[in-house]
Amino acid sequence: MASTTAPAPSPESGAPAEQGELKRAIGPKLLLLFIIGDILGTGVYALTGQVAAEVGGAAWLPFLIAFGVALVTAFSYLELVTKYPQTAGAALYVHKAFGIHFVTFLVTFIVMCSGITSASTAARAFAANLAAGIDVELGNATIMLIAMGFLLLVMAVNFRGVSESVKANVVLTLVELSGLVMVILIGFWAIAGGNADFSRVVVFETPGDKALLLSISTATSLAFFAMVGFEDSVNMAEETKDPSRIFPRVMLTGLGITAVIYVLVSLCAVAVVPIGRLADNETPLVTVVETAAPGFPIGSLLPFISMFAVANSALINMMMASRLLYGMSKQGVLPGFLSKVHARNRTPWASILFTTGLSLLLIGYVSLSPESPIVAVLGGTTSLLLLAVFAVVNLVVLRLRPDRVEHRHFRAGRVLPVVGIVACLWLVLPWSSGRGIEQYGIAGALLAIGVVLWAVTFVVRRSSGHGSPAEEVPAELDHGR
After folding, report:
1. 179 near 285, Cβ under 8 Å?
2. Fewer CB within 10 A of the end CB, N or C, for the chain?
3. pLDDT at 36
4. What is the reported pLDDT for 67?
C-alpha cells in the first residue's frame, strides 16, 4: 500500500530504544498467533447455532460478510497503528482527531464495556460447555450460578496479578485452534461418508415473516462477535518490531486465516446437523461432533477445549476492562477509588471488583429475564458496542489524513473508510441491523453508569478546585499532537 513521506530514524525502525520504552520483542510470527488467538474463541464456539437460526443453512454467509466489515475496518486500524505506533488504541486515535476529553472517555468506556459483555458471554458459554462435558442436564438457574462462579474465579486470578504473556498466548491459541480443526475434519469426514446433507448450505430459512435482508443483517450482527479481537493487537504496537512494516501483512493474514476457519466450521455445522437442532443451542460445535461421529472418543474432549477457549477470552477481556477502568480513574475522569491498587499484589483491586460486579449483574439479568437466547444477547451487545467504536475509527482515519508523520506508513485509501462507516452503522442501527431491543438496553445502561460516574467526578473535582477532567489531557494520548 502507498505510504507518505520518506522514512526517518524512529524507535519502531530498529533504532536503539530510549530508556523507559517498552521492549520491542514481538516479531511477525508471535504477532500473527496473538491476532489469531484473540479472534478465535467464544464467538464461533457459542454463536454458530444462533447465526444458523437467522438464515438457515447459509450460516457461512454472515461470517463472510462479518469478515468483510472487519477487513475494511482493519485497513483503517492499519493506517492509524502504522502512523501512530503507540499503545492506547482507539482512545489515542480519537483524542488525536478531536481533542475532546469527554469523547475520548466515551470511546474508552465503550471499549471497556465491550470487554465486560464479552467476558459475560464467555462465562455463560463456559457453564454450558461444562454441562455438556460432564453430560448432565442442568437448568437455567444452575447454569447461571456456574457462570457467576466462573467469573469469581476469573476475578481471583485477575486479583493475584497473573497476566497472559504473548508466548503463553501461543499455547492457548493452538488449543483453541485444535478444537476448530477437529470440528472441520470430523465434519468433512461425515460429509465424505454420506452422513451429512451438504445441500443445506445454500438453503435460506428466515424466522417467521422476517425479510431476507433483515435476517442476514441480524445474523451478521451476531457473527461479527466472532471477528472482533484483531483491534486489540494495536495495543501491542510499542512492543512490536518495526510495526509500520509488519502490521499490515500480519493483521490481514490473521483475519484471512480466521475467516477461512469460520466459514469451514459453519459449512460443516449446517451440513451435519439439522438447523432445528443448531438453533438456540449454546454448545453447537459439541452437537456437530457428536452427530458426525457418535461414540468417537475425541468428541468428548471438545466441550473441555471449548471451555478452555472461552475461559481464555473471559480472562483477557476482564483484565483489559479492569485496567481501562483503572487508567480512566488514574487520569481523573472517573472516581478516584477505582484507581486503588492492592499493596502486595499491585493489582487494581477496586476496578477488578467493579468490573466483576457489572459482569455478575449482566449474567443475572439476562439469565433471569431470557427474552432471547442468553449468549446471543450478550454477544450481540458486544458487537454493538465495538461496531459503534469501529464507525468512529473509520471516521478518524479521514479526519487525521492531513496529519503528516516522518516515517512511511500504510494508507487505507479514501473509499474504504467511508464503506467502513456505512457498514458499521448499518449493523448498529436498530431498523437495519435487526437487533433485539434488549441489546440496546444493556448497552445504554452500561453507558449511563459511565456517564454518571464521569459527571460525579466532574462535579467533585470542580468543587474541590482541581479543575474538570475535560481540562486535562493524558500524557500518553497527547504524545505527538
Report:
1. yes
2. C
3. 82
4. 92
Whose grid coordinates read 457489572?
Answer: 358
Mean pLDDT of the chain: 79
Cell numbers representing residue 226 in the block: 466472532
CB 170 within 8 A of CB 33: yes
Model confidence over 257-297: pLDDT tens digits? Answer: 999 998 999 898 888 988 878 877 777 888 888 888 887 76
What one-character-per-residue DSSP string does 304-364 give? HHHHHHHHHHHHHHHHHHHHHHHHHHHTTSS-GGGG---TTT-S-HHHHHHHHHHHHHHHH
Grid cell at residue 77: 486500524
Instruction: Fill in the amino acid letter for 164.
Output: E
CATH number for region 24-466? 1.20.1740.10
Q: Which helix (H) or strand (E) holds 59?
A: none
Residues whose CB is less than 8 angstroms from the CB of residue 458 and which lie 6 or more positions away in sequence, other chains included: 468, 469, 470
Alpha-carbon distance of 177 to 33, in angstroms, equals 10
Yes or no: say if 263 and 61 are a contact pair by the CB < 8 Å rule.
no
Q: pTM of the predicted model, to two decimals?
A: 0.79
- Cell numbers standing for residue 220: 451478521
State the CB neighbour count (10 A cutoff) for residue 166.
16
Collect all residues with Cβ–Cβ distance below 8 Å to 257 and sequence separation of at least 6.
Answer: 36
Residue 70: pLDDT band with limits 50, 70, 90: very high
Long-range contacts of 454-459, Cβ-Cβ distance < 8 Å, separation of 24 or more: 454/102, 454/105, 454/109, 454/333, 454/334, 456/335, 457/332, 457/333, 457/334, 457/335, 457/336
DSSP 439-452: HHHHHHHHHHHHHH
Mean pLDDT, rounded, for 218-241: 77
Cβ partners under 8 Å of residue 298, min gap 6: 182, 186, 289
**Distance (Å, whole) CA 45 – CA 182:** 12
Residue linked to cell 482507539: 90
The residues with which 240 forms a beta bridge, in sequence order, are: 26
Contact 56, 206 (CB under 8 A): yes
Using the 8-state DSSP alphabet, how is residue 413 labeled? T
Q: Evaluate whether 283 touches 136 at the Cβ level (below 8 Å).
A: no
End-to-end CA distance of the chain: 25
Closest CA to 247 of 116, 74, 117, 106: 74
The answer, yes or no, to whether residue 193 has pLDDT greater than 70, is yes
One-letter amino acid at 436 equals: G
Beta-carbon contacts of 418 under 8 Å, excluding residues fewer than 6 positions away, are 394, 398
**CA atoms of 411 and 434, how far apart (whole Å):** 33
Assess whether pLDDT exceeds 60 at residue 12: no
